[in-house]
Amino acid sequence: MDRLTRFDEPLPETTPPDPADWGSLSAPEVLAPLLGRRFACPACGAVHVLRTRRIETSETALARSGELLEGMGFAGQPVVLFDTRTYAACGPALTDGLARFSPRPMILQGDDLHADERLVGSLLIAMSDDPPFLVSCGSGCLTDTTRYVALRCRLPFVSVATAASMDGYASSNTPLIVGGFKISYPGKAPEAILSDPRVLAKAPRAMTAAGFGDVLAKIVALLDWKLARDLEGESYCPLVADLVDKAVGECLALAGDLAGGSPSAVARLLDVLSLTGVAMQMMGTSRPASGAEHHISHLLEMRDIQRGRHGSLHGDKVGIGTLVSMAMYLRMFGDGALPAQRPTLPAAAWEREVRRVYGPLADEAIAKNAPEPPSGAAWEAQRRRLARSMDEYGYAAVRSFRTLLPKARDDMAALGGPTRPDQLGYGPEDTFDAICFGKEVRPKFTLLRLAERFGWLYDLGREIADGLPRGVIY
């Protein structure tokens, strides 16, 4: 059986346990047997596909990696992608565990790597001997690079996590920096995710804080997603949403143990992060885990690259974007009514601002976005749908932010993570641009576009950008 037949054939279909009670399926112990399967969802009717077949976090996972992968059908000599830090963290242990495959390590040099066209090209060049599978050993940058190349080359890959720093280990989506612009491409979900809790616990504390921030992002992403369903007809699955919501709750419950450096808590955080990646697999998009907060983060990351500035961790910026987004929701909807309509930005003014913010990347941002928000009858129809949705669930969610926002802020600080953009070296203008023009990175509906439609975005962006360094926003 060749590698393509073995790993690219349709996954077997199964019937979920107790399909009449779809809510029970979002429990991790119930979902686990569905890994490597496809099933008709009793909640939304779609067929969900879980490409990842195994998630194992244990002290023996690396030593047994060869045995585990051989049992899954892997064979031949893989390329194993490291950077200098991840090789130091567990390179010898992993290559020893994979010894039966005679793995070929590729160790990337440099301390400010990005998943971009340069890294993709480097990995492709290293594959001149046509390896039968790939292994990534690292976190976001290495995993995203490997998953993209795995899809393009029709190869299976395995992800070995070295830090509980982000939620993309199990994802099938690939954010890449191409020409300085952060673009989401299709990718391949890993066949397995392996990790050793001792390695995770030894990762820099800042990486665990970043992973915590990446899970908290789902607080905003879930509300954005439900509103996108109601206002713009986006596909939605209550089972997937419930899975992500439970992951957020577990993450918040772990905060104290994570601050104390508990290896078991860090390992559990990685499991939670992996589950949110599984949720993205089930939907085939990043929508269950990414909303306004990620758009704010993406623009800040792109600005770092444009300036040649050593960037911070993805989860740091996402965590800040989450706090900012919760503050925006409270400011707009906290009194239990729709905000008053204000004038929106004319198309010509919007284009001038996009050209200022995006510079040489502006043409691409302009091409993928409408120059003005919906108006007239189209906006009035959306407002009516929004009013119903806010009455049904939105105002209750926003009210919960009154306690969630300070808790999330304090938990992030206790973990040693940043809570304001100025702590990462961003000035008020950087923050203003990220809030007001992060939405142009992706043409999808989020809180940022909702604020734009009400005419609140730019005034609110200025208020928050100027107030955060003074501690008057949250």
Question: How would you describe this structure to a colleague?
Answer:
Helices cover 53% and strands 10% of the residues. The protein has 474 residues and is of the alpha/beta class. It folds into 2 domains: 51-203, Rossmann fold; 206-260 and 284-470, Dehydroquinate synthase-like - alpha domain (Dehydroquinate synthase-like, alpha domain). The radius of gyration is 22 Å and the shape is globular. The relative contact order is 0.11.
Concise structural overview:
With 474 residues, the protein is of the alpha/beta class. The protein has helices at 3-8, 28-31, 65-71, 84-97, 117-126, 140-152, 197-202, 205-232, 238-259, 263-283, 292-307, 314-333, 347-358, 362-367, 376-414, 428-437, 447-453, 457-467, and strands at residues 38-40, 47-49, 54-57, 79-83, 104-108, 134-138, 157-161, 173-178, 181-186, 192-195. Helix 11 (292-307) crosses helix 16 (428-437).
Characterize the main sheet: 6 strands, parallel
Mean pLDDT: 92
User: What level of helicity do the residues show?
Assistant: 40-55%
Q: H/E order of the elements?
A: HHEEEHEHEHEHEEEEHHHHHHHHHHHH
Spatial gap, N to C terminus: 58 Å
Radius of gyration (Å): 22 Å
Q: Give the neighbour order of strands across the main sheet.
A: 3-10-7-6-4-5
Do you know the CATH architecture of the largest domain? Up-down Bundle
Task: Give the tally of structural domains.
Answer: 2
Structural class: alpha/beta
Q: Say which CATH homologous superfamily of the largest domain is assigned.
A: Dehydroquinate synthase-like - alpha domain
Top-tier CATH class of the largest domain: Mainly Alpha
By CATH, the topology of the largest domain is Dehydroquinate synthase-like, alpha domain
